[in-house]
Amino acid sequence: MFSTRSIIGYFSIRTGLAALVLCGCIFSNAKAQARSECQPNALEKAEELSALQQYAAAIALLEPCLPNDIVDPWQQKRAYKLVALGHLSLGNEAAAKSAVESLLQLEREYQPDVARDPEGFQKLVEDTKSEMHAREAARSSPARKKGGISKWWWIGGGSAVLVGGSVLVYLLSRTEPLPDPPGDPR
Question: Are the C-beta atoms of 96 and 88 separated by less than 8 Å?
């Protein structure tokens, strides 16, 4: 009926699949725990590390906390600003820009402190703000899209001509005569 070979193959496949599932669960759980550990008072500790110019440590302390563990918008803005300043100090402008975008999503009209913030950060905020406004304007303005409004006029006008022409062809091609109009109501 069943050979020994098929029974052993069946159980070895099941055991192998179970082992794969178990390993996947262990590794994904360990990765999720390592990624989502936000230390208590992370923002205050990161500010102290930033003051000591230990930017990489400050960033490493804050990134697991954003955006889920630090929920107060004011603290989130402070955290994103620290992350952006840290990345700028380390020369990673792309990561700094990403942090500034997150900051601007929280407060669209954020203004850097001209007296305290570095010039590079001020320029990055203004450039990022301009890019975000330009992207938003391009998305929301149908006239600026390819074809824009004129394309829809052609489509709508073409549809109206098509419908009107179809009705005209139908009326002209009818074989039975139309009934006489009703008499004068007087």
Answer: yes
